[in-house]
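Quick one: structure tokens for this chain, please?
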Amino acid sequence: MLIARTVAELRQHLSAYKKPAFVPTMGNLHEGHLSLMRMAKAQGDISVASIFVNRLQFLPGEDFASYPRTFDSDCDKLRSVGCDLLFAPDETELYPQPQSFKVLPDPALADILEGQFRPGFFTGVCTVVLKLFHCVFAHSGGVAVFGQKDFQQLLILRRMMSQLAMPIDIVPGATTRAPDGLALSSRNGYLSAEERAEAVQLSMALKSLAASARAEAGSGRFDVAAAEAAAMAGLRERGWLPDYITLRHPSDLSPVTVVGPEPLVVLGAARLGKTRLIDNLEI
């Protein structure tokens, strides 16, 4: 696996390829990242990963300084799945000047759910993703693989690619879960042993809400708001601090008022101790 530390090195390595397949990460890799990397291997003529902890998507008081940085073990994991090229810039390389030009995503998508509780988060995500895409895809179009655990992020990035007419296909990768159902996340490492045992309750709350919605689909009897409130109350009783558990339309994340036969998605975010977890389940 080649490692490029500068944009110039990266572009030089990629100049001979027509279809890079790219997986951007912030490092501290787990099996979920590796599953995306395996997908990328089958999508292009060279597989590329990046490791960059992006300051722009952390709010004041969040864990930018303490976010786990495990570069050597990350490299070993990427090699184990056959990654061809790793882009690992430092902050001065990717942001040689303060990043005053930023991408402002559609507020209808970006100012709800995660954006409501983490204002400016998606501006930071879209800005760094667009910049990484210009670095990786300077000579061609290609494919970028993102995990479906970040459902709202995936939707926003797809919309950004469409509206900016970029020749890059956004490919979703299914959420990788632990045997008990917990969605894998780099932040799961913050959980104590007791919190880790409890953490599966978030996915269980989403499954319960999804099952109730399915059972009543088309009946006209399902009270969406009451079911969402009950799911959040159930987590609060267990010591969680939920931000939201909600049923939405997957195409635009608009609220659901009547449950019918159309596809839906249940999304949740909640804090357990000091750790904020997110998850979703498509119905």
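The chain is about 40% helix and 20% strand.
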